Amino acid sequence: MNLKSNEPFWLLKNGLIATYPSLKSDENCDVLIIGGGITGSLIAHQMVKDGYKTILIDKRELCNGSTSATTSMLQYEIDVPLYKLIEKIGEKGAVASYKACSEAIDTIETIVKEIHSNAGFKRKKSLYFASKKKDIEWLKKEYETRKNAGFEVKWLNADQILEKFGFENTYGGIVSEQGASIDAFQFAHELVIHNVKKGLKVFDKTEMVDVEYHKGFNIAKIDSGFKIRAKKIIYCIGYESKTLLKENFVNLKSTYAVVSEVDKDKFKSITSTLVWNTDDPYLYMRTTDDGRLLIGGADEDFYGAEKRDAILNKKEKEILKNLKKIKPDYHFYPDFVWAGTFGETKDGLPYIGEHSKFKNSYFVLGFGGNGITFSVVGMEMASLFMKNKKHLLSRYFKFGR
After folding, report:
1. Which of 49, 69, 172, 274 is the most exposed place for a label (fewest CB within 10 A)?
2. 287: Cβ–Cβ under 8 A, 6 or more apart, which residues?
3. In this predicted model, what pLDDT tens digit does every residue of 118-127 receive, in sequence order?
């Protein structure tokens, strides 16, 4: 499946950070990780840290799938508002899911320091504003729900948003203290490089085509004819899981993003803030560490890479038209535009856990706008899985829920 298109900014900005060999012999390990994007690199980091002999494979170059197309906004907010998630799964699971994503941002900062990352991690606040007058009522309810759950939030009215951020035609919004941004493409590569030094084996251009299940181990068959014997397999294949798992558990969406030319002075008001609104699909934006504005949205159902890419120009205009509503006098100079594919679940939660049809296996599938923070939660959950233990969120993230 083609997960990105045209000119993904992170891929062009960073170039070829590292390259790895394809598999040329039979191998064995404790843990085989399928998928070398940000999720796979995080899970590999955890497995190596836990002392397991670990192999990571990807059918492409590492990080050249969705990770190169991500906007890398690190949020604790889930695509389904907290008050709605409480209605869906109960207060305990909903608040725990939000708090786990909040703690995940802290975990990322810890890892950034641990591996001496240069991926531009930056702590930021988050502004979630009402784009229509009718949204004020439920957004204020969301504000109160988050506040009562212990999150550090503040309500700003339209005038305050205009004064602080220079955004017109808003109707108030929530400012959250917890948030961050990073270059996930570079960070994922840094994680792999760090763990290769600690014994992680990595093979790219290496596709698993079949699995033999045995008692206590699996044998993964590779497209080259070689085999990898693993006690456990952890699938970190994101949206491509749709082709592996037959049940209808996620809807694929296309999202579009545009990055401006460098202009640090114009974006000072949101340099330390992630921004998104209540539109459906919602508009979102952040600055990059080299002084650009990244803005995206205009999501729609995924009907194939060719159809998705054919409307890039149309979607670029749609995104910039939405930007004009809140910044009428601002002229945006596009430098890069691309599309990516992501997954949307009914409750906004990921699928992390075992699947009845895949023995000795575990899935870490972070979906939605905060897939990276879900993947960090998946690190702890996968670690517990290896020890035959359950995580508090296992029941809420499981298949068949």
Report:
1. 49
2. 181, 267, 270, 271, 293, 294
3. 999 999 999 9
